[in-house]
From TrEMBL:
It comes from Araneus ventricosus. Gene3D superfamilies: Ribonuclease H-like superfamily/Ribonuclease H (3.30.420.10). Residues 4-59 form the DUF4817 domain. GO terms for molecular function: nucleic acid binding. It is found in: Nucleus. This is DUF4817 domain-containing protein. Pfam families: DUF4817. One of its GO terms (cellular component) is nucleus. Its main location: nucleus.
Protein backbone atom coordinates (compact mmCIF):
# COMPACT_ATOMS: atom_id res chain seq x y z
CA UNK A 1 0.00 0.00 0.00
CA UNK A 2 1.17 3.51 -0.76
CA UNK A 3 1.08 5.66 2.37
CA UNK A 4 0.23 9.33 1.94
CA UNK A 5 1.74 12.28 3.78
CA UNK A 6 -1.50 12.50 5.79
CA UNK A 7 -1.02 8.92 7.00
CA UNK A 8 2.56 9.59 8.00
CA UNK A 9 1.78 12.84 9.80
CA UNK A 10 -1.06 11.26 11.79
CA UNK A 11 1.11 8.32 12.85
CA UNK A 12 3.99 10.51 14.07
CA UNK A 13 1.69 12.92 15.91
CA UNK A 14 -0.31 10.10 17.53
CA UNK A 15 2.86 8.24 18.49
CA UNK A 16 4.21 11.16 20.52
CA UNK A 17 0.81 11.98 22.08
CA UNK A 18 0.40 8.42 23.36
CA UNK A 19 3.69 7.89 25.19
CA UNK A 20 5.50 6.42 22.19
CA UNK A 21 3.09 3.49 22.03
CA UNK A 22 3.06 1.76 18.66
CA UNK A 23 0.06 -0.46 19.47
CA UNK A 24 -2.04 2.55 20.56
CA UNK A 25 -0.96 4.41 17.43
CA UNK A 26 -2.12 1.50 15.27
CA UNK A 27 -5.48 1.31 17.09
CA UNK A 28 -6.14 5.03 16.67
CA UNK A 29 -4.98 4.90 13.03
CA UNK A 30 -7.56 2.20 12.29
CA UNK A 31 -10.32 4.24 13.97
CA UNK A 32 -9.36 7.59 12.38
CA UNK A 33 -9.13 6.31 8.80
CA UNK A 34 -11.98 3.79 9.09
CA UNK A 35 -9.83 0.74 8.41
CA UNK A 36 -11.61 -2.58 8.91
CA UNK A 37 -10.41 -5.21 11.35
CA UNK A 38 -8.49 -7.07 8.68
CA UNK A 39 -7.50 -3.97 6.72
CA UNK A 40 -3.89 -2.96 6.25
CA UNK A 41 -2.33 -0.50 8.67
CA UNK A 42 1.31 0.57 9.18
CA UNK A 43 3.30 -2.15 10.92
CA UNK A 44 5.74 -1.61 13.78
CA UNK A 45 8.77 -1.35 11.47
CA UNK A 46 7.11 1.28 9.29
CA UNK A 47 6.01 3.39 12.26
CA UNK A 48 9.50 3.22 13.79
CA UNK A 49 11.03 4.31 10.46
CA UNK A 50 8.69 7.30 10.12
CA UNK A 51 9.41 8.40 13.68
CA UNK A 52 13.17 8.04 13.17
CA UNK A 53 13.01 10.11 9.98
CA UNK A 54 11.05 12.80 11.80
CA UNK A 55 13.57 12.95 14.62
CA UNK A 56 16.53 13.21 12.20
CA UNK A 57 15.13 15.52 9.53
CA UNK A 58 11.99 17.08 10.98
CA UNK A 59 9.94 15.36 8.29
CA UNK A 60 8.13 12.06 8.25
CA UNK A 61 8.41 11.78 4.47
CA UNK A 62 10.81 9.34 2.89
CA UNK A 63 14.30 10.73 2.64
CA UNK A 64 15.56 11.20 -0.89
CA UNK A 65 18.74 9.47 -1.85
CA UNK A 66 21.58 11.92 -2.47
CA UNK A 67 22.40 9.95 -5.62
CA UNK A 68 25.47 8.06 -6.58
CA UNK A 69 28.64 10.10 -6.30
CA UNK A 70 30.40 10.78 -9.55
CA UNK A 71 33.44 8.55 -9.21
CA UNK A 72 34.12 7.68 -12.87
CA UNK A 73 33.57 10.73 -15.07
CA UNK A 74 36.00 12.85 -13.13
CA UNK A 75 38.19 15.52 -14.78
CA UNK A 76 41.18 13.20 -14.32
CA UNK A 77 39.51 10.30 -16.13
CA UNK A 78 38.21 12.58 -18.88
CA UNK A 79 41.74 13.88 -19.45
CA UNK A 80 43.14 10.33 -19.42
CA UNK A 81 40.60 9.20 -22.02
CA UNK A 82 41.38 12.22 -24.21
CA UNK A 83 45.11 11.50 -24.11
CA UNK A 84 44.64 7.78 -24.78
CA UNK A 85 42.33 8.32 -27.74
CA UNK A 86 44.53 11.08 -29.16
CA UNK A 87 47.57 8.81 -29.05
CA UNK A 88 45.75 5.71 -30.37
CA UNK A 89 42.62 6.83 -32.24
CA UNK A 90 42.23 3.47 -33.99
CA UNK A 91 42.19 1.38 -30.82
CA UNK A 92 38.77 -0.09 -30.06
CA UNK A 93 36.66 1.23 -27.19
CA UNK A 94 36.91 -2.16 -25.48
CA UNK A 95 40.72 -2.07 -25.48
CA UNK A 96 40.79 1.58 -24.42
CA UNK A 97 38.50 0.83 -21.48
CA UNK A 98 40.61 -2.16 -20.45
CA UNK A 99 43.84 -0.16 -20.61
CA UNK A 100 42.38 2.69 -18.52
CA UNK A 101 40.63 0.46 -16.00
CA UNK A 102 37.17 1.77 -16.92
CA UNK A 103 33.99 0.03 -17.96
CA UNK A 104 33.04 0.25 -21.62
CA UNK A 105 29.84 2.11 -20.67
CA UNK A 106 31.77 4.74 -18.72
CA UNK A 107 34.34 5.13 -21.47
CA UNK A 108 31.66 5.61 -24.13
CA UNK A 109 29.82 8.16 -21.99
CA UNK A 110 33.04 10.12 -21.55
CA UNK A 111 33.72 9.98 -25.29
CA UNK A 112 30.21 11.05 -26.30
CA UNK A 113 29.04 13.34 -23.49
CA UNK A 114 32.24 14.88 -22.13
CA UNK A 115 34.62 14.93 -25.10
CA UNK A 116 31.96 15.10 -27.86
CA UNK A 117 33.87 12.50 -29.87
CA UNK A 118 32.20 10.42 -32.59
CA UNK A 119 33.32 7.12 -34.17
CA UNK A 120 34.09 7.78 -37.82
CA UNK A 121 34.46 5.01 -40.38
CA UNK A 122 37.55 4.70 -42.52
CA UNK A 123 37.03 5.64 -46.17
CA UNK A 124 38.27 3.16 -48.76
CA UNK A 125 39.86 4.73 -51.85
CA UNK A 126 41.85 3.40 -54.75
CA UNK A 127 45.57 3.15 -54.16
CA UNK A 128 47.59 5.76 -56.03
CA UNK A 129 50.67 4.08 -57.46
CA UNK A 130 53.65 5.70 -59.17
CA UNK A 131 52.67 9.10 -57.78
CA UNK A 132 55.91 10.98 -58.77
CA UNK A 133 55.54 10.08 -62.45
CA UNK A 134 51.84 10.91 -62.43
CA UNK A 135 52.54 14.27 -60.86
CA UNK A 136 55.23 15.03 -63.44
CA UNK A 137 52.87 14.06 -66.26
CA UNK A 138 50.19 16.45 -65.03
CA UNK A 139 52.68 19.27 -64.59
CA UNK A 140 53.86 18.85 -68.21
CA UNK A 141 50.24 18.72 -69.35
CA UNK A 142 49.41 21.96 -67.56
CA UNK A 143 52.44 23.69 -69.07
CA UNK A 144 51.38 22.76 -72.61
CA UNK A 145 47.65 23.38 -72.37
CA UNK A 146 46.64 26.78 -73.66
CA UNK A 147 43.96 28.94 -72.07
CA UNK A 148 41.51 28.17 -74.90
CA UNK A 149 42.26 24.45 -75.17
CA UNK A 150 39.67 21.87 -74.18
CA UNK A 151 40.81 19.11 -71.85
CA UNK A 152 38.65 16.01 -71.70
CA UNK A 153 38.65 13.56 -68.81
CA UNK A 154 37.13 10.26 -69.87
CA UNK A 155 36.62 6.75 -68.59
CA UNK A 156 34.56 3.65 -69.23
CA UNK A 157 32.74 1.43 -66.76
CA UNK A 158 30.78 -1.81 -66.65
CA UNK A 159 27.16 -1.74 -65.48
CA UNK A 160 25.78 -5.15 -64.53
CA UNK A 161 22.16 -5.86 -65.43
CA UNK A 162 21.43 -8.72 -63.03
CA UNK A 163 20.67 -6.50 -60.05
CA UNK A 164 22.28 -6.50 -56.63
CA UNK A 165 20.98 -7.43 -53.17
CA UNK A 166 22.58 -6.04 -50.03
CA UNK A 167 22.22 -8.83 -47.47
CA UNK A 168 22.86 -6.42 -44.61
CA UNK A 169 19.75 -4.40 -45.47
CA UNK A 170 17.46 -7.29 -46.43
CA UNK A 171 15.36 -9.04 -43.79
CA UNK A 172 12.56 -11.59 -44.13
CA UNK A 173 10.22 -11.81 -41.13
CA UNK A 174 8.72 -15.27 -40.59
CA UNK A 175 8.21 -17.92 -37.91
CA UNK A 176 10.81 -20.16 -39.55
CA UNK A 177 13.72 -19.59 -41.91
CA UNK A 178 12.29 -19.49 -45.47
CA UNK A 179 15.78 -20.13 -46.91
CA UNK A 180 15.33 -17.38 -49.44
CA UNK A 181 18.03 -17.17 -52.09
CA UNK A 182 18.99 -14.66 -54.72
CA UNK A 183 20.54 -16.37 -57.71
CA UNK A 184 23.05 -14.56 -59.84
CA UNK A 185 25.09 -15.83 -62.79
CA UNK A 186 28.81 -16.42 -62.53
CA UNK A 187 29.39 -13.95 -65.37
CA UNK A 188 26.52 -11.52 -65.23
CA UNK A 189 25.29 -9.66 -68.27
CA UNK A 190 26.58 -6.10 -68.44
CA UNK A 191 27.07 -3.09 -70.67
CA UNK A 192 30.25 -1.06 -71.14
CA UNK A 193 29.72 2.69 -71.19
CA UNK A 194 32.15 5.49 -72.03
CA UNK A 195 31.77 9.13 -71.02
CA UNK A 196 33.87 12.29 -71.07
CA UNK A 197 33.65 15.58 -69.21
CA UNK A 198 35.22 19.00 -69.75
CA UNK A 199 34.55 22.59 -68.77
CA UNK A 200 32.31 22.86 -71.83
CA UNK A 201 29.99 19.93 -71.36
CA UNK A 202 29.52 16.24 -70.66
CA UNK A 203 29.91 13.99 -73.71
CA UNK A 204 28.28 10.58 -73.75
CA UNK A 205 27.20 8.07 -72.90
CA UNK A 206 28.66 5.80 -75.59
CA UNK A 207 27.93 2.06 -75.44
CA UNK A 208 30.53 -0.34 -76.78
CA UNK A 209 28.24 -2.71 -78.67
CA UNK A 210 28.18 -4.65 -81.91
CA UNK A 211 24.95 -6.20 -83.16
CA UNK A 212 23.29 -5.14 -79.88
CA UNK A 213 25.80 -7.12 -77.84
CA UNK A 214 28.44 -5.73 -75.49
CA UNK A 215 31.99 -6.12 -76.77
CA UNK A 216 35.40 -5.84 -75.15
CA UNK A 217 37.11 -2.47 -75.48
CA UNK A 218 40.33 -2.67 -77.50
CA UNK A 219 42.45 -0.12 -79.33
CA UNK A 220 40.63 -0.56 -82.64
CA UNK A 221 37.18 -0.07 -81.13
CA UNK A 222 38.41 2.84 -79.05
CA UNK A 223 39.79 4.67 -82.11
CA UNK A 224 36.52 3.99 -83.91
CA UNK A 225 34.62 5.57 -81.02
CA UNK A 226 36.85 8.66 -81.11
CA UNK A 227 36.29 9.18 -84.82
CA UNK A 228 32.65 8.21 -85.16
CA UNK A 229 31.26 9.55 -81.88
CA UNK A 230 33.58 11.97 -80.09
CA UNK A 231 34.73 14.01 -83.07
CA UNK A 232 31.19 14.88 -84.24
CA UNK A 233 30.35 15.88 -80.68
CA UNK A 234 33.33 18.21 -80.52
CA UNK A 235 32.36 19.85 -83.81
CA UNK A 236 29.26 21.15 -82.09
CA UNK A 237 31.50 23.17 -79.77
CA UNK A 238 33.91 24.39 -82.45
CA UNK A 239 36.58 21.80 -81.67
CA UNK A 240 37.62 19.86 -84.76
CA UNK A 241 40.75 18.08 -83.55
CA UNK A 242 40.79 14.95 -81.44
Amino acid sequence: MSWTSEHRAFVVETYFKNADSISETQRLFRRHFGVSRHGKIPDRKTISLWVANFRETGSCLKRKSPGRPRHVRTPENVAAVRNAVTQSPRRSARKQASALGLSQRSLRRILHEDLKFHPYKMMLVQEMKDWPNRKKCFEVLLENVGPDDVVLASDEAHFHLSGCVNKQNFRYWAESNPRQKHERPLHSEHVTVWCAVSHLCVIGAYFFEENNETVTVNSQRYVHMLRSFLQPQLHQFGQSEV
